[in-house]
Known about the structure:
Elements: E1 48-60, E2 65-79, E3 84-87, E4 91-95, H1 106-109, E5 114-119, E6 124-130, E7 139-144, E8 149-153, E9 164-168, E10 173-179, E11 188-193, E12 198-202, E13 214-217, E14 222-228, E15 237-242, E16 247-251, E17 263-266, E18 271-277, E19 286-291, E20 296-300, E21 312-315, E22 320-326, E23 335-340, E24 345-349, E25 360-364, E26 369-375, E27 384-389, E28 394-398, E29 410-413, E30 418-424, E31 433-438, E32 443-448
Antiparallel strand pairs: 1-2, 2-29, 3-25, 4-9, 5-32, 6-7, 7-8, 8-9, 10-11, 11-12, 12-13, 14-15, 15-16, 16-17, 18-19, 19-20, 20-21, 22-23, 23-24, 24-25, 26-27, 27-28, 28-29, 30-31, 31-32
Amino acid sequence: xxxxxxxxxxxxxxxxxxxxxxxxxxxxxxxxxxxxxxxxxxxxxxxxxxxxxxxxxxxxxxxxxxxxxxxxxxxxxxxxxxxxxxxxxxxxxxxxxxxxxxxxxxxxxxxxxxxxxxxxxxxxxxxxxxxxxxxxxxxxxxxxxxxxxxxxxxxxxxxxxxxxxxxxxxxxxxxxxxxxxxxxxxxxxxxxxxxxxxxxxxxxxxxxxxxxxxxxxxxxxxxxxxxxxxxxxxxxxxxxxxxxxxxxxxxxxxxxxxxxxxxxxxxxxxxxxxxxxxxxxxxxxxxxxxxxxxxxxxxxxxxxxxxxxxxxxxxxxxxxxxxxxxxxxxxxxxxxxxxxxxxxxxxxxxxxxxxxxxxxxxxxxxxxxxxxxxxxxxxxxxxxxxxxxxxxxxxxxxxxxxxxxxxxxxxxxxxxxxxxxxxxxxxxxxxxxxxxxxxxxxxxxxxxxx
Length: 450
């Protein structure tokens, strides 16, 4: 769970990030109205469904190749009325796949009408998008929870991707981040292994190929990982949310891509997502954690040496599962954005300027939002909210009005049970695209901006 753009700590929050977490980010289908604004892909009072050409899926191994053709696929777009409230390795296998592409025009299907899906491993639960082979084309990295692998899909240059190459990691990889940790200008993979209570570091050999993981012990049930320099030595450090121990772990980088033993800090019950960003303008990155148990976010201010003060908590919605940090009201103060799985909302906590935050303002989204990314998607220089709505099989996009408030979400259908989202330009057209890990269909969706 992703992401310099701010992404969910994955996430979902990486400073890319992209979900971070390192790791960057759906509707109730009740209302189908849209605003007339062709440049943003909106039309009035319309529910839109478009059917693409037949789906072709291709899979191959060293011994067999098969091609299957299935029935046509449907891509849907809708908007939901929003209620707003304020509250106090060595490569182990390669799989080739290519499937649904929707090419209906911008006017009919909004900002993201072109969707392609790619097969990955079993239960992909985290996605990051970073150029790992130095060709200036962002590649997809996915944590396959059910396969105990990370998959790397290289970008061919036009927003399409090669088959994934798999690398074995620990049991139950839950979150992935991609950052250069050994100062060789080659982004490395860092993964939180849920079942083995460690993080794995896979160093990049330089051409998008990765070494076997080196593991470091963390807390019980590590759910989210992000990578950022927290002690100002220009070496990215690892921060992990340990859901089973109600802690965050900080592993300082020695400088060559190896890490010291963890230091832990107490946070709230069941922390599911972590982000790292300087929220009080002292040039020291702070830790922000989504605590699912007490329905809060924790803010741990950095003392300056990579150690942190005790948490200060702020109320969110029900079951916060993903957190992202971005300045959404253009006051140069990073704000907190949270996806609340239990209340089907996202909430925005504006920064007062000293690292404390106002009460949350909430916006309705789809069912069971699990991941959030905050990136400008319509080129107006205001960061927008993109959320993976697990229960709606869709992503929602909430455009920023310019003052840190947001319009109703626009929903785009994706694969089954979308777990993680990232937002970045993957086809070099200077328009941000959406990448989603679909845990129920073992795929990633790439939605290209029109």
